[in-house]
Amino acid sequence: MVRRSRPQAPPARPAAPSRPSANASAPQALTAEEQALVEELLAKSKRLDDQNFFEVLGVEEEATTQQVQRAYLALAKKWHPDRLPKSLDEHKAKVAKVFAKVNEAYQTLSDDSKREEYVGLVKHGGGTSRDRELIERAMDAGLVFQKGEVMFKKGDYEQAEALVHQAMQADPENLEYRAMLAWVQAHALGAPPDEHSRKSHYKRQIALLNEVIASDKNFAKALYYRGELLKRSGEEDRAYKDFRKVMSLDPRNIDAAREVRLYEVRAKKKQGGLFGRLFKK
To answer: Are 192 and 186 in contact (CB under 8 A)?
Structure first.
């Protein structure tokens, strides 16, 4: 008896892709109002560090305490982190930063004594966060520079140069730091090894002092440093001009006065020697 093979079952159909549940949260597009709020937030956050407290609150410097309070309440209502729509949660850190600055501005300008002190700061160009940061950096640089001066007086020129250079990096526009760096480097180099290299030995340091003096032609300290290095380089006439300029700027500079006197004494001796030779002839 022949057995018939059983017909095979048809292949199973692939499972239909699961549909997302109705509860799954898909990112929703922002409304026009929310998008406008985000753009305003980004713009305000970007310029925050460059604004003083009056600009942060959007009031004039002559604003009354009541006007300051009204401006604060309007901004607090708008930028308080708790009032941020859920759809803008990713911007919560920026909103918190804006609100903190608004609150700081209000606390300062609503207090008469704090406001008076702050107005003085604004008049001297220190009213913004960025200004305060620069002032703090300059103060830190000043402390580092003072340490460099101490090391220089101790004769530790390597450490002095490192500290002065650090101060100059923190406050690159400070001419005193740049002039001192040239002076320290010159001491670290020491005297020219021979007469042949005398003129070029301090070339880089003199160039740095030239830049400083180009920025401030009446910077007596830089002029004195350059005069000393020119004298050591064998350029007595140019050095004399610098020392004379230092004396005109600072008559109490005894070092410059001594150099001028020595130069003039040598010049008279040379002149006397020339007349003597002519007389003998």
So the answer is: no
Q: How many CB atoms lie within 10 A of CB 41?
A: 19
Q: Report the pLDDT value the prediction gives residue 32, as an integer from 0 to 100.
A: 87
- The encoded tokens of residue 107 equal 């606390």
Taking 80 as the threshold, does the pLDDT of residue 13 lie above it? Answer: no
- CA distances (Å), 46 to each of 76, 131, 202, in order? 18, 15, 46
Nearest one of 166, 163, 220 to 188, comparing CA atoms: 163
Sketch the domain layout of the chain as residue ranges. 38-124, 192-274
CATH number for region 192-274: 1.25.40.10
Say how far apart CA 137 and CA 168 lie, in whole Å: 11
- Per-residue pLDDT for 2 more than 80? no
pLDDT band at 118 (very low <50, low <70, confident <90, very high): confident
Supply 73's token pair.
């309440």
In this structure, are residues 170 and 140 in contact, taking their beta carbons and an 8 Å threshold?
Answer: yes
Query: 23 to each of 26, 29, 50, how far by Cα in Å?
Result: 9, 17, 45
Instruction: Indicate whether 115 pLDDT > 70.
Output: yes
Mean predicted confidence (pLDDT) in 59-71: 93
**The residue type at 228:** E
Does the predicted model carry a pTM greater than 0.70?
Answer: no
Architecture per CATH, domain 38-124, reads as Orthogonal Bundle (1.10)
Distance, in Å, from the CA atom of 142 to the CA atom of 158, rounded to the nearest integer, reads 19
CA-nearest of 218, 217, 231 to 186 is: 231
Amino acid identity of 196?
Answer: H
